[in-house]
Amino acid sequence: MFGKGKDKKAEYSMFDKILIANRGEIALRVIRTCKEMGIKTVAVYSTADEESLHVRFADEAVCIGPPPSPDSYLNIPNIIAAAEITNSDGIHPGYGFLAENAKFSQICAEHNIKFIGASPTMIDLMGDKATAKATMKKAGVPTIPGSEGIIRNLSQLKKVAKKIGYPVMLKATAGGGGRGMRLVEDEKEIEAAWNSAKKESGAAFGNDDIYLEKFIEEPRHIEIQIAGDKFGKACHLSERDCSIQRRHQKLIEETPSPFVDKKLRDKMGKAAIKASEAIAYEGVGTVEFLVDKNGEFYFMEMNTRIQVEHTITEEVVSYDLIKEQIKLAAGEPISGINYYPQMCAIECRINAEDPKRGFIPSPGRITTYHAPGGHGIRIDTHVYAGYNIPPYYDSMVAKIIAVAQTREEAILKMKRALDEFVIEGVETTIPLHRKIMDDPNFRKGNVTTRFLDSFEINWDD
Question: CA–CA separation, 151 vs 283, rounded Å?
Fold first, then answer.
């Protein structure tokens, strides 16, 4: 247990004080749960985020540097110093930034500060996609046919691609967000794809290693939320369908998936638990699968952190995942019970981007802000009227979650909430989400990861 030997002040005061090494809505989200657990909080912020709500509502706040991420939210020495001067005994990394940084997790341990996330070993094991795939294959979790590890040269690439059959997908082993990823329809495209994938991967990650996978046609991106404890046990909290994406970045998530039936849900849940227990995973995480049109599923990756879309799982199973993270970090066991959706929930990510102009970023000051409300609507955000959206970070400004008894009701509720949501002074993706809610294929649940590729938008309607 943590807390430097002090007496407990609340049911879960295994931590006296947690520093949140992040910003925006996720930092505010963690602060709320900590306060409900009787744990003091410390916000860190760059000079660009001085007016953010996470700074205002934390018990303490420490400026850790100028706006650029490498000088602030990725500045490990500054964050550790902030934890030490505030006497924090835990650090919650949120998602993004340092959440899956093995070095940061290790440094926290060396300073006797509990990293509320995965161990360095787990992060390294699952962070390299080729290693993660090999680990899952050994554990008996279905994996996508492809290369055995990293492709060393163009000659090997052509040989493996021919063996498994086109179309194939080149992927950066250190990748994320679609960078270093290339679809190759036939052999005449493969050399150009190889060169551009390696160049982009090297620039983005400092690592140009590439591996190859069979391209799954009509794929859905379906992930299973898991939780594992230090005793080697894991449970799952069912699935989230994250198929609607733009450039491999999720836009809309829902649970349960309109594609997944009870039989498939049980199979995927068991596979996710097998994946977690095979590596003795500790904490909350997500096992992500690609699912083809026939219901065959394949391991894609494991995220060793809380997800942006954890909110919809919380709403349909009444389970605070941030609280569970903190409890697991303090050595508490999981319940051992798998959780299944009792409601239907949809999340729309609202970004400060202009969908009518190629999704160009739209930073600036919010002049008018009105959040929707009513039964079954949840808003997670850090913005308000007068808030200035900085140009240095991710463009997401809010998440709308609609919860109802059925998927049809959740869609109607979301549509109503989007109509009520007013953000002026900057452009946002609210109009795009309105269009998607009205789309017949979306209404029927007929979506794949390439949904937006053929989604025609008439902005004059």
Answer: 32
Which residues have C-beta within 8 Å of that of residue 68, sequence separation ≥ 6? 46, 392
CB-CB neighbours of 331 under 10 Å: 14
CATH 2.40.100.10 correct for 17-116: no
- The letter for the amino acid at 452 is L
Do the bridges between strand 40-46 and strand 60-65 make them parallel or antiparallel, or are there none, so unpaired?
parallel
User: Is there a contact between 173 and 133 (Cβ–Cβ < 8 Å)?
Assistant: no
Distances (CA, A) of 335 to 236, 327, 346, 361, 434: 11, 11, 26, 43, 39
Cα 197 from Cα 296, distance rounded (Å): 28
- Pinpoint the alpha helices (H) of 165-302: 190-205, 262-278
145-214 has which fold? Dna Ligase; domain 1 (3.30.1490)
* Residue 74 DSSP symbol: T
Burial (0-12, 13-18, 19+ Cβ within 10 Å), 279: buried
Q: What's the pLDDT tens digit per position in 155-210?
A: 999 999 999 999 999 999 887 667 889 999 999 999 999 999 999 988 888 899 99
Above 60 in pLDDT, residue 391?
yes
Q: What is the pLDDT of residues 308-365, one digit of tens each?
A: 999 999 999 998 999 999 999 999 999 889 999 999 999 999 999 999 999 999 999 9
Q: In percent, how much of the chain has pLDDT > 70?
A: 96
Lookup: tokens for 134: 């090999």
* Residues taking part in catalysis: 305
Q: Residue 379 in contact with residue 371, Cβ under 8 Å? A: yes
Q: How far apart are CA 292 and CA 38, in angstroms?
A: 45
Q: How far apart are CA 336 and CA 193, in angstroms?
A: 45
Q: Are 176 and 128 in contact (CB under 8 A)?
A: no
Phi, psi for residue 165 in degrees, rounded to 5: 90, 140
The verdict on pTM exceeding 0.70 is yes
Domain 220-454 CATH (choose: 3.30.470.20, 3.30.200.20, 3.30.565.10, 3.30.365.10)? 3.30.470.20
| Domain boundaries, given as residue ranges, for the chain | 17-116, 145-214, 220-454
